[in-house]
Amino acid sequence: xxxxxxxxxxxxxxxxxxxxVEHNVTRAAAxxxxxxxxxxxxxxxxxxxxxxxxxxxxxxxxxxxxxxDALREPLRQALAVLAQAVAPVGAFEPAQSSQTWRVAAFDxxxxxxxxxxxxxxxxxxxxxxxxVVQAAPTRVAKKAEQGDIDxxxxxxxxxxxxxxxxxxxxxxxxLVGRAGHPSLISxxxxxxxxxxEHVVVSPEGGGxxxxxxxxxxxxxxxxxxxxxxxxxxxLNAVLANTDxxxxxxxxxxxxxxxxxxxxxxxAIPGFEMLMLWPERVHRDPAHQWLREHIANSINxxxxxxxxxSAIPAGxx
Length: 316
Description:
The structure is a single chain. The chain is of the alpha/beta class. The strands form four sheets. A five-stranded mixed beta sheet has the order 4-3-5-12-6, with helices on both faces. Strands 10-7-11 form a three-stranded antiparallel beta sheet. The radius of gyration is 32 Å and the shape is rod-shaped. Residues 310-316 have low confidence and may be disordered. It has helices at 2-6, 11-22, 25-32, 36-50, 66-86, 107-124, 137-146, 190-195, 211-218, 232-241, 285-310, and strands spanning 55-58, 61-64, 100-104, 129-133, 151-155, 164-171, 173-178, 197-201, 224-229, 246-249, 259-262, 271-277. It is built from eleven helices and twelve strands. The chain folds into three domains: 2-86, Arc Repressor Mutant, subunit A, CATH 1.10.10.10; 95-169 and 273-305, Periplasmic binding protein-like II (D-Maltodextrin-Binding Protein, domain 2, 3-Layer(aba) Sandwich); 173-269, D-Maltodextrin-Binding Protein, domain 2 (3-Layer(aba) Sandwich), CATH 3.40.190.10. Helix 2 crosses helix 3 (25-32) and helix 3 packs across helix 4 (36-50).
């Protein structure tokens, strides 16, 4: 079939469709906004290609041959499908969409980037679906280009360079333990901090060092890390139910009354959370809508937190 199509100017099929509707070269030319001689030349080329007269002179214009009659409906359907395929992409209508998106995120990205967006997503696009998957940062770019994922949420240190990106927020670390932890009633000294028993999150599993340990090593000291866990969800449960402490991204513990939050005695570099996507979906209206919805949801939650924190305490 491809060989046949390469032998034919597809514009001729548009002309043939007009001729089969009008049964008249002059009217077909007017329909196509072409000169009559041009349509006559194209009809001659069509006759050569199909090895058939296609349209014969008749008392009331031209009448189609059996071959032309057989072409009429398949040609009309094919041109309609082709026109739809090359038509400009319309605006995305979330309320009518049944889109399925696949998003790569670990538990921190799920909680801080996706959770704020879920309620609004269901309200505005109720028939859409969202699949959250996990993918190692080193595999995200390949999975995105292959179409296995549409979006990913990674820190700036983890993000592959060949994906488009949008910064969502900047995160800082705080020292966290259970509510009422005797060692966190006031910010601990560096010596007290190092003497505490710490938990670390190791997404790869089994690691006992992080950015905090690098900062401490630069000052010639070390802390006691006694537990390594793979997920922040489990970390929060451990902190709430033991005397262990941890350096935790502040957004994960904001408003958690079961936990005590204080300032650590050593400065730990924060990180930037990024939303990432492949070039193949950069201009897709549905994907653009999803990206804007997620970013706006995060901004609204941030503004809500700032507003609550600015409310003055009641008078005694």
